Amino acid sequence: MDTEKRKAQYREMFGRVADALGYKFSPDEEIVDFILEQEVTLEKKHGNPFCPCQGLKGNREEDMKIVCPCIPFNREHFDAMKRCWCGLFVHKDVEDPDELEQLAYSEFNS
Amino acid sequence: MMTEDVILYTLSTCPWCRKSKAYLNERNIPFDNIEYDLADEETKEMIRNVIEESGEKLAFPFLKKGDQCICGYNPKKYAEILGR
Question: Rounded to 5 degrees, what angle do the CA atoms B53, B19, B79 make?
Answer without folding.
Answer: 70
